[in-house]
C-alpha cells in the first residue's frame, strides 16, 4: 500500500489552517505515526540496527547511576536512613509509568516517545507541552549528570595527590567559574553520536557492564562495614522527608524512556521495546535499593550531608586502599559518560520527531547520508547542553528535570487510557496489567511527586512553559504539518488502517 506522508514545508498555506482551538486538539493520525519511520521520501532514513540487548542497555545506561553516583549526598539528608524507601517509592512511580510506556512503545514504535503518544491521543497542544517538557527532561538531565563528573574526576586525580581547582571543576554558584569535565564529557558523547548510532550503542553496552560491576563491588565492600544501628531511627525527618526525597530521587529513574526514542532504529520495535523497558526497570530498581541500603549500613545518615562523591569516600574509609577508590572513581566517570551518551541520544530523537511535524526547525530532522544520524541537530543540542553543564549548578538542574519528567509520564498514562477506549482494535504487543487502575495510579503518583517539589522548582517550570508557549506561537503554530492538512486529507488519514511495523530483514 502507499505509505501516507505529511506535507513538506507548509508556511505558505496559512489560509487552510484550522482555528487555534481546533488546531490544538487536532491529533496526528495513527497511520502516519506508524508509517513515518519507513516513509523516507527519498531522504536518508535512520538505520534499524538495535536488538533487545542494545535497547535494554540504552535504557539502563540512561538510568542507572544518576541518583546513586551524583545526588545521593543531597537526598539522604532529606529522608535519613529511609532513603532506600524513597528510592522504592520513586521506583514504583516510575514502574507504573514504565508499563504504560511499554504498551505505547509497542503500539507506536516511533522516535518521538511520549511526545508522539500524546500527539496521537490528545492533540497538538498537549503534544507540544509534552515535547517541551521532554526537552527539559533530556537536555537538562544530561547537563545535571555531567555536572557530577567533576566530583569523580577529582576523586580519580586525588589518588595521585592532585585535583582540579574549583574554578575549573565547579559551575558558578558552587564556588567555580566553569565545570570543564562536564563540558568535555558532553562534547565527547556528541561526537560519538554524530559518528553513528550502532557504534554508540555497543560502546554504551560495554560501559553499562562496567557500571553494574562497580556498583556491585561497592555493595560487597560496604556490607563488610554494615551496622544495623545506622537505621535507627528509620524516619528522623518523618514521612514528609521520605516523600520529599522520593520527589528528588525520581530524577534517578528518568532515562528508561530513552529506549522508546529508539523506535525507528530497532529491528523489531513492537516486540523488543516493551521487553527492554520492563527489563531495564527491574535491573535499575534492584541495584538502586541495594546500593542505598549498603551505603546507609556503612555510614550514619548524617555523614552524607554535604558529601560529594559519597560512595568513593565510603570505600576509601572502609578499605584504606587508594587503588579501590581509583577503580571506583574511574568507573563512575564512565558511568556518567554512559548516561550522558544515552540521554543525549534520546534528546536528539525527540527533536527529530517534533521537527518532522513542523513544530521545531527542519534542521533537527535532517539525517546525514554518510552516518545515518541527525548530525546537525545532534551538534546543536550537544553545544547547548555542554554550555548548560559547564555553567549551571546541579541542584537546580536535578529538580527542574524531575518536574518535566513527571509531567510527561502522567501524560503517557493518560494516553494509554484514551487509546484503550478510542482505538481498542489496534494491535498491542504489550498490555498494561490491571487496566485502568495501573495507569490511573501511575498518573496520580506522578502528580503527587510533582506536588512535593519546592516552589522554586515550580517557578522554573512555569517560566520554561512560558518560553515554550512563545516558541509554539512564534514557530510551531505557523509551521505545523498536521494542521496544514485540509479537512478531507485529515479525515482520510485518520480513517486509514495503521501499517504494521515488522522486523528488519
Oligomeric state of this protein: single chain
Any idea what the radius of gyration is?
A: 22 Å
Percent of residues in β-strands: under 5%
Largest beta-sheet details: none
CATH architectural designation: Up-down Bundle
Structural class: mainly alpha
Query: What's the CATH C level?
Result: Mainly Alpha
Number of domains: 1
H and E order: HHHHHHHHHHHHHHHHHHHHHH
Helix content: 55-70%
Mean pLDDT: 81
Kindly report the name of the CATH homologous superfamily: Amino acid/polyamine transporter I
Compute the separation of the termini in Å. 19 Å
Number of strands: 0
Sequence stretches where pLDDT stays below 50 over 5 or more residues: 9-15, 501-505
Number of helices: 22
What coarse outline follows from CA principal-axis ratios? Answer: globular
Topology-level CATH name = Amino acid/polyamine transporter I
Can you tell me about this structure?
This protein has one domain: Amino acid/polyamine transporter I (Up-down Bundle), CATH 1.20.1740. The chain has helices at residues 20-25, 30-35, 52-63, 66-69, 72-79, 83-107, 113-121, 124-147, 149-158, 166-169, 180-195, 197-222, 238-249, 269-298, 310-319, 322-356, 375-391, 394-422, 437-451, 455-479, 481-484, 487-495. It is built from 22 helices and no strands. The chain is globular and about 75 Å long. Helix 6 packs antiparallel against helix 14 (269-298), helix 8 packs across helix 20 (455-479) and helix 15 (310-319) runs antiparallel to helix 16 (322-356). By secondary structure, the chain is an all-alpha fold.
Amino acid at each position: 500500500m502507499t505509505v501516507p506522508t505529511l506535507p513538506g514545508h507548509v508556511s505558505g498555506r496559512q489560509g487552510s489552517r484550522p482555528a487555534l482551538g481546533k488546531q490544538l486538539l487536532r491529533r496526528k493520525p495513527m497511520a502516519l505515526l506508524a508509517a513515518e519511520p519507513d516513509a523516507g521520501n527519498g531522504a536518508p532514513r535512520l538505520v534499524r540496527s538495535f536488538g533487545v540487548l542494545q535497547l535494554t542497555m540504552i535504557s539502563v545506561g540512561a538510568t542507572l547511576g544518576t541518583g546513586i553516583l551524583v545526588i545521593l549526598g543531597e537526598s539522604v539528608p532529606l529522608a535519613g536512613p529511609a532513603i532506600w524507601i524513597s528510592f522504592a517509592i520513586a521506583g514504583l512511580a516510575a514502574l507504573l509509568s514504565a508499563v504504560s510506556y511499554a504498551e505505547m512503545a509497542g503500539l507506536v514504535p516511533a522516535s518521538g516517545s511520549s511526545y508522539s503518544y500524546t500527539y496521537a491521543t490528545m492533540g497538538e497542544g498537549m503534544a507540544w507541552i509534552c515535547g517541551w517538557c521532554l526537552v527539559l527532561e533530556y537536555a537538562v538531565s544530561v547537563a545535571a549528570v555531567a555536572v557530577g563528573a567533576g566530583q569523580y574526576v577529582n576523586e580519580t586525580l586525588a589518588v595521585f595527590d592532585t585535583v582540579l581547582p574549583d574554578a575549573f571543576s565547579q559551575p558558578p554558584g558552587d564556588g567555580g567559574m566553569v565545570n570543564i569535565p562536564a563540558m568535555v564529557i558532553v562534547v565527547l558523547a556528541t561526537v560519538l553520536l554524530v559518528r553513528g548510532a550502532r557504534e554508540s550503542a555497543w560502546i554504551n553496552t560495554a560501559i553499562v557492564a562496567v557500571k553494574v560491576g562497580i556498583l556491585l563491588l561497592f555493595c560487597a565492600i560496604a556490607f563488610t562495614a554494615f551496622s544495623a544501628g545506622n537505621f535507627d531511627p528509620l524516619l528522623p525527618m518523618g514521612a514528609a522527608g521520605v516523600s520529599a526525597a522520593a520527589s528528588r530521587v525520581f530524577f534517578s529513574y528518568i532515562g528508561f524512556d530513552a529506549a522508546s526514542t529508539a523506535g525507528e532504529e530497532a529491528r523489531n520495535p513492537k516486540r523488543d521495546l516493551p521487553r527492554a523497558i520492563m527489563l531495564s526497570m527491574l535491573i535499575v530498581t534492584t541495584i538502586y535499593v541495594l546500593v542505598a541500603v549498603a551505603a546507609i549500613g556503612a555510614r550514619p545518615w548524617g555523614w552524607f550531608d554535604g558529601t560529594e562523591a559519597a560512595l568513593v569516600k565510603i570505600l576509601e574509609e572502609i578499605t584504606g586502599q587508594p587503588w579501590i577508590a581509583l577503580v571506583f572513581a574511574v568507573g563512575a566517570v564512565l558511568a556518567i559518560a554512559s548516561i550522558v551518551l544515552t540521554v543525549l541520544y534520546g534528546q536528539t530523537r525527540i527533536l527529530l520527531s517534533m521537527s518532522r511535524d513542523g513544530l521545531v526547525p527542519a534542521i533537527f530532522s535532517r539525517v546525514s547520508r554518510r552516518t545515518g544520524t541527525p548530525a546537525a541537530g545532534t551538534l546543536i543540542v550537544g553545544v547547548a547542553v555542554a554550555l548548560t553543564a559547564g555553567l549551571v549548578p546541579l541542584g537546580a538542574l536535578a529538580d527542574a528535570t524531575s518536574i518535566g519528567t513527571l509531567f510527561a509520564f502522567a501524560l503517557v498514562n493518560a494516553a494509554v487510557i484514551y487509546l484503550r477506549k478510542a482505538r481498542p482494535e489496534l494491535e498491542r504487543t504489550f498490555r498494561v496489567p490491571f487496566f485502568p487502575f495501573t495507569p490511573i495510579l501511575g498518573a496520580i503518583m506522578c502528580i503527587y511527586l510533582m506536588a512535593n517539589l519546592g516552589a522554586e522548582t515550580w517557578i522554573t517550570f512555569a517560566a520554561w512553559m512560558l518560553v515554550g508557549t512563545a516558541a509554539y506561537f512564534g514557530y510551531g503554530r505557523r509551521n505545523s504539518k498536521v494542521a496544514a492538512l485540509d479537512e478531507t486529507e485529515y479525515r482520510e488519514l485518520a480513517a486509514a488502517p495503521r501499517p504494521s511495523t515488522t522486523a528488519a530483514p
